[in-house]
Amino acid sequence: xxxxxxxxxxxxxxxxxxxxxxxxxxxxxxxxxxxxxxxxxxxxxxxxxxxxxxxxxxxxxxxxxxxxxxxxxxxxxxxxxxxxxxxxxxxxxxxxxxxxxxxxxxxxxxxxxxxxxxxxxxxxxxxxxxxxxxxxxxxxxxxxxxxxxxxxxxxxxxxxxxxxxxxxxxxxxxxxxxxxxxxxxxxxxxxxxxxxxxxxxxxxxxxxxxxxxxxxxxxxxxxxxxxxxxxxxxxxxxxxxxxxxxxxxxxxxxxxxxxxxxxxxxxxxxxxxxxxxxxxxxxxxxxxxxxxxxxxxxxxxxxxxxxxxxxxxxxxxxxxxxxxxxxxxxxxxxxxxxxxxxxxxxxxxxxxxxxxxxxxxxxxxxxxxxxxxxxxxxxxxxxxxxxxxxxxxxxxxxxxxxxxxxxxxxxxxxxxxxxxxxxxxxxxxxxxxxxxxxxxxxxxxxxxxxxxxxxxxxxxxxxxxxxxxxxxxxxxxxxxxxxxxxxxxxxxxxxxxxxxxxxxxxxxxxxxxxxxxxxxxxxxxxxxxxxxxxxxxxxxxxxxxxxxxxxxxxxxxxxxxxxxxxxxxxxxxxxxxxxxxxxxxxxxxxxxxxxxxxxxxxxxxx
Length: 606
What we know:
With 606 residues, the chain is an alpha+beta fold. The chain contains 10 helices and 37 strands.
């Protein structure tokens, strides 16, 4: 596999919406880096609009909910201006519904009041908004605005009730958040807005209505499980499986569970980083796992007899999937392409590192052997990848960059260290005050386990990561002696500087991860790659986008300069037209080629 091949199919499908007129989703364009609105025509996915219209929300910096569907229309947040547009699905006519300096996201359709509901962000504040479709209808109105942050709102089927989640600084939404409900009056305004704290400390997400009751995912008993909140305020657990039913809510508008017309349910569960789709018919308490060939599911939508979703697998590109909820039969509607038919791909192998002394949690990850496999039991070089977030997860989904390394003779291990989501609240909260410690220790634990249990060369262990994963990789190079070389892809080197410059959504996150600088000053010194640069003596390579506003370029230039002052020779490559996360095919291909040369050079030097 060439670097051009590995970067040519960076196609992702997200943000699924549906109505009586069709199915709609966003599809990334690897050439432009935009998100194209797609629909089905004669069973084939085609652009609804010109590819020059890119849909992406920037609310909270991570967006989400940039697309929703009405009876004969689609509504989307246009990427460059962040305004909401009304798109006629029959004619393709496109017109703005908003015109201000705000960002919008978390779109949902309110059929009873013929309007779009959204989260509006401007001047450091957020509001829940009702957006009218024409000037002749009621004016755009603020529905709620007292809270720091809002999730995408959800309206009941009869249009009489609204539900949403809010959270307040300094918390992130997966640390502490609260459910709200309100009644919607005939003029569209809200009344009787009420908070519904969970029975004990926890976070909630993704409220939906089942009649007058609200079903919400809450982790107050240790896992994001579905709970029914009755109109009388009683909380009832609907699924006692000790598994997370959703991922960490970095973006607005995720949907991992839905009610079915027969009183049943369709729900996601995560087991050891693998997503499972479960169908519960009628009022049966025992579900059936369906669509087993897929390993992650997003954007669940119920449309008549079907459940639609974006499904991901280990061997194919993202699939727009239709599931008959009566039979469980799954059928791809679009996508699911084999990237390179006939090419053998490395298959992920789940591995688990047992608990260590002192009761440290077991961790897991996915091991990808080289293709073709090494002959005669010869040990191979391996790249350990620390996922970003850090409150996130690595899934065993098709990643052509991982396949690129396997085709070049490397093994790859993607690790879900302590603090990853999808493993329960206690595991996720293990990062509190411990970033740069437990994640680094777990990357080392994984490396040593792989050396002992897989045919990998202990002298050719490499580590890399993107964003916060780059921070983990840098500190692993400082704190451990197991890795021969490392790579930081727009990684954090100076947490204190990041704290001073970070955006509002994450303004309290670093204090949660490291403790406040006033209370825990040693953490900010000892777990700063920049402050510890004199201990980083092995080869490093850095990649940075010049337009990155999350991990600004100075994060990379500062540590590169420090390493050079200490006599090191780090490699650094800056891409003028990239931001946080490389999107353009040519840049990704160039990065892979430079990484390959770097790792091969370090392998030869051993």
